[in-house]
Protein backbone atom coordinates (compact mmCIF):
# COMPACT_ATOMS: atom_id res chain seq x y z
CA UNK A 1 0.00 0.00 0.00
CA UNK A 2 2.52 2.65 -1.09
CA UNK A 3 0.00 5.53 -1.13
CA UNK A 4 -1.13 4.70 2.39
CA UNK A 5 2.48 4.66 3.62
CA UNK A 6 3.02 8.05 2.01
CA UNK A 7 0.03 9.47 3.84
CA UNK A 8 1.00 8.15 7.25
CA UNK A 9 4.66 9.06 6.89
CA UNK A 10 3.84 12.69 7.65
CA UNK A 11 2.50 11.70 11.04
CA UNK A 12 5.14 9.11 11.85
CA UNK A 13 7.50 11.54 13.53
CA UNK A 14 4.76 12.95 15.72
CA UNK A 15 3.63 9.43 16.56
CA UNK A 16 7.08 8.70 17.98
CA UNK A 17 6.67 11.68 20.31
CA UNK A 18 3.35 10.24 21.46
CA UNK A 19 5.11 7.18 22.79
CA UNK A 20 6.91 9.40 25.30
CA UNK A 21 3.70 9.87 27.29
CA UNK A 22 3.73 8.39 30.82
CA UNK A 23 2.98 4.66 30.90
CA UNK A 24 2.33 4.16 34.63
CA UNK A 25 -1.15 2.83 33.98
CA UNK A 26 0.37 0.06 31.84
CA UNK A 27 1.70 -1.55 35.04
CA UNK A 28 -1.77 -2.30 36.39
CA UNK A 29 -3.56 -5.56 35.79
CA UNK A 30 -4.63 -5.19 32.15
CA UNK A 31 -8.33 -5.10 31.46
CA UNK A 32 -9.92 -7.70 29.20
CA UNK A 33 -12.64 -5.28 28.16
CA UNK A 34 -11.23 -4.77 24.66
CA UNK A 35 -9.94 -8.29 24.02
CA UNK A 36 -12.70 -9.02 21.50
CA UNK A 37 -11.54 -6.09 19.35
CA UNK A 38 -7.90 -7.14 19.51
CA UNK A 39 -8.89 -10.67 18.53
CA UNK A 40 -11.24 -9.57 15.75
CA UNK A 41 -8.91 -7.16 14.00
CA UNK A 42 -5.80 -9.26 14.44
CA UNK A 43 -7.60 -12.07 12.65
CA UNK A 44 -8.93 -9.70 9.98
CA UNK A 45 -5.66 -7.98 9.16
CA UNK A 46 -3.08 -10.65 10.06
CA UNK A 47 -4.98 -13.90 9.65
CA UNK A 48 -6.10 -16.70 11.91
CA UNK A 49 -3.47 -17.93 14.33
CA UNK A 50 -1.53 -14.68 14.63
CA UNK A 51 -0.87 -13.73 18.26
CA UNK A 52 -3.47 -11.06 19.07
CA UNK A 53 -1.91 -10.49 22.48
CA UNK A 54 1.03 -8.78 20.79
CA UNK A 55 -1.29 -5.92 19.88
CA UNK A 56 -2.88 -5.84 23.29
CA UNK A 57 0.66 -5.59 24.70
CA UNK A 58 1.21 -2.67 22.33
CA UNK A 59 -1.96 -0.98 23.54
CA UNK A 60 -0.72 -1.40 27.10
CA UNK A 61 2.55 0.30 26.16
CA UNK A 62 0.81 3.09 24.28
CA UNK A 63 -1.93 4.08 26.72
CA UNK A 64 -2.39 1.51 29.45
CA UNK A 65 -5.45 0.49 27.38
CA UNK A 66 -7.15 3.80 28.14
CA UNK A 67 -9.56 4.92 25.39
CA UNK A 68 -9.42 8.51 26.67
CA UNK A 69 -5.63 8.78 26.65
CA UNK A 70 -4.21 11.85 24.92
CA UNK A 71 -0.58 12.78 24.48
CA UNK A 72 0.82 16.28 24.54
CA UNK A 73 1.31 16.13 20.76
CA UNK A 74 -2.30 15.11 20.13
CA UNK A 75 -2.12 11.31 19.76
CA UNK A 76 -5.33 9.73 21.00
CA UNK A 77 -6.89 6.56 22.22
CA UNK A 78 -5.73 3.10 23.12
CA UNK A 79 -3.32 2.86 20.19
CA UNK A 80 -2.26 6.54 20.46
CA UNK A 81 -2.91 7.43 16.85
CA UNK A 82 -2.37 10.90 15.51
CA UNK A 83 -5.59 12.31 13.99
CA UNK A 84 -3.87 12.65 10.59
CA UNK A 85 -2.84 8.99 10.66
CA UNK A 86 -6.35 7.92 11.66
CA UNK A 87 -7.84 10.03 8.88
CA UNK A 88 -5.54 8.43 6.31
CA UNK A 89 -6.66 4.99 7.45
CA UNK A 90 -10.36 5.71 7.88
CA UNK A 91 -10.99 7.96 4.88
CA UNK A 92 -11.84 4.99 2.65
CA UNK A 93 -13.59 3.04 5.39
CA UNK A 94 -16.88 4.74 6.28
CA UNK A 95 -17.55 2.31 9.11
CA UNK A 96 -14.61 3.83 10.99
CA UNK A 97 -16.17 6.82 12.69
CA UNK A 98 -14.55 8.52 15.69
CA UNK A 99 -10.89 8.10 16.58
CA UNK A 100 -12.09 8.05 20.20
CA UNK A 101 -14.19 4.94 19.66
CA UNK A 102 -12.10 2.10 21.15
CA UNK A 103 -13.14 -0.34 18.45
CA UNK A 104 -12.04 1.83 15.56
CA UNK A 105 -8.94 3.10 17.32
CA UNK A 106 -7.80 -0.48 17.85
CA UNK A 107 -8.76 -1.48 14.31
CA UNK A 108 -6.84 1.44 12.80
CA UNK A 109 -3.81 0.79 14.99
CA UNK A 110 -3.66 -2.84 13.93
CA UNK A 111 -4.08 -1.81 10.29
CA UNK A 112 -1.12 0.52 10.68
CA UNK A 113 0.81 -2.37 12.21
CA UNK A 114 -0.06 -4.51 9.21
CA UNK A 115 1.41 -1.88 6.91
CA UNK A 116 4.64 -1.98 8.90
CA UNK A 117 4.58 -5.79 8.92
CA UNK A 118 4.21 -5.92 5.15
CA UNK A 119 7.19 -3.61 4.59
CA UNK A 120 9.61 -6.22 5.91
CA UNK A 121 7.72 -9.28 4.67
CA UNK A 122 10.41 -10.52 2.30
CA UNK A 123 13.50 -9.36 4.14
CA UNK A 124 13.15 -10.06 7.86
CA UNK A 125 12.67 -13.50 9.45
CA UNK A 126 9.31 -13.78 11.17
CA UNK A 127 10.80 -14.31 14.62
CA UNK A 128 12.33 -10.81 14.47
CA UNK A 129 9.89 -9.04 12.20
CA UNK A 130 7.50 -8.01 14.98
CA UNK A 131 10.30 -5.84 16.42
CA UNK A 132 10.76 -4.04 13.12
CA UNK A 133 6.98 -3.63 12.87
CA UNK A 134 6.66 -1.99 16.26
CA UNK A 135 9.84 0.00 15.73
CA UNK A 136 8.34 1.38 12.53
CA UNK A 137 5.04 2.14 14.26
CA UNK A 138 6.89 4.16 16.87
CA UNK A 139 9.63 5.90 14.92
CA UNK A 140 8.36 5.74 11.34
CA UNK A 141 9.52 3.23 8.76
CA UNK A 142 12.00 5.68 7.26
CA UNK A 143 13.92 5.79 10.52
CA UNK A 144 14.16 2.01 10.70
CA UNK A 145 15.28 1.86 7.07
CA UNK A 146 18.03 4.37 7.89
CA UNK A 147 19.09 2.22 10.82
CA UNK A 148 19.27 -0.79 8.53
CA UNK A 149 21.44 1.21 6.15
CA UNK A 150 23.82 2.14 8.97
CA UNK A 151 24.02 -1.50 10.07
CA UNK A 152 24.76 -2.64 6.53
CA UNK A 153 27.44 0.04 6.14
CA UNK A 154 28.97 -1.24 9.38
CA UNK A 155 29.13 -4.73 7.86
CA UNK A 156 26.43 -6.01 10.19
CA UNK A 157 23.39 -8.04 9.24
CA UNK A 158 20.68 -5.40 8.89
CA UNK A 159 17.97 -8.06 9.11
CA UNK A 160 18.34 -8.70 12.85
CA UNK A 161 17.01 -6.37 15.55
CA UNK A 162 20.02 -6.74 17.91
CA UNK A 163 22.19 -5.22 15.20
CA UNK A 164 19.71 -2.35 14.82
CA UNK A 165 20.00 -1.80 18.56
CA UNK A 166 23.78 -1.79 18.37
CA UNK A 167 23.97 0.92 15.70
CA UNK A 168 21.03 2.95 17.03
CA UNK A 169 23.15 5.64 18.77
CA UNK A 170 24.80 6.47 15.44
CA UNK A 171 21.60 6.78 13.40
CA UNK A 172 20.81 10.46 12.69
CA UNK A 173 17.47 12.01 13.59
CA UNK A 174 16.30 9.13 15.75
CA UNK A 175 15.16 9.18 19.39
CA UNK A 176 16.47 5.67 19.57
CA UNK A 177 16.19 5.17 23.34
CA UNK A 178 12.47 5.77 23.09
CA UNK A 179 11.97 3.30 20.25
CA UNK A 180 14.15 0.56 21.73
CA UNK A 181 12.40 1.01 25.06
CA UNK A 182 9.03 0.86 23.35
CA UNK A 183 9.79 -2.45 21.66
CA UNK A 184 11.16 -3.86 24.91
CA UNK A 185 8.09 -2.73 26.85
CA UNK A 186 5.80 -4.48 24.38
CA UNK A 187 7.81 -7.67 24.79
CA UNK A 188 7.59 -7.46 28.57
CA UNK A 189 3.87 -6.70 28.41
CA UNK A 190 3.37 -9.71 26.19
CA UNK A 191 5.04 -11.88 28.81
CA UNK A 192 2.60 -10.54 31.38
CA UNK A 193 -0.22 -11.76 29.19
CA UNK A 194 1.04 -15.36 29.21
CA UNK A 195 0.38 -18.15 28.66
CA UNK A 196 1.13 -17.92 24.98
CA UNK A 197 -1.91 -18.76 22.95
CA UNK A 198 -0.61 -18.27 19.44
CA UNK A 199 -0.37 -21.09 16.95
CA UNK A 200 2.82 -22.25 15.30
CA UNK A 201 2.85 -19.46 12.71
CA UNK A 202 2.79 -16.77 15.39
CA UNK A 203 5.69 -14.36 15.86
CA UNK A 204 5.16 -13.93 19.58
CA UNK A 205 8.36 -13.19 21.51
Distance between the amino and carboxyl termini? 27 Å
Category by helix and strand content? mainly alpha
Rg calculated over all Cα atoms: 16 Å
Q: What does the overall shape look like?
A: globular
Quick one: how many beta strands?
0
Residues in β-strands, percent: under 5%
Mean pLDDT, to the nearest integer, reads 87
Q: Which sequence of SSEs, written as H and E, runs from N to C?
A: HHHHHHHHH
Helix content: 55-70%
Verbal overview:
This protein has about 200 residues and is mostly helical. The chain is built from nine helices and no strands. It has helices at about 1-20, 35-45, 55-65, 85-90, 100-120, 125-140, 140-155, 160-165, 175-190.
Features:
205 residues, mainly alpha, disordered C terminus, 0% strand
How would you summarize what this structure contains?
With 205 residues, the protein is mainly α. Helices cover 57% and strands 0% of the residues.
Task: Describe the SSE topology.
Layout: H1 2-18, H2 35-46, H3 53-63, H4 83-90, H5 102-119, H6 126-139, H7 141-153, H8 161-167, H9 176-192
Helix pairs in contact: 1-4, 1-6, 2-5, 3-9, 5-6, 6-7, 6-9, 7-8
Amino acid sequence: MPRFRQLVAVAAGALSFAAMAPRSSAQRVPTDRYDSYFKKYTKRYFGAGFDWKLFKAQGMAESGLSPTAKSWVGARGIMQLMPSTYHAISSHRPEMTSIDDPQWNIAAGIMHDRDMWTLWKDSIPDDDRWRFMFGGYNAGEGTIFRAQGVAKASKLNERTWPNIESVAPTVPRWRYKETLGYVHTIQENRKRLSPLTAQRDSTAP
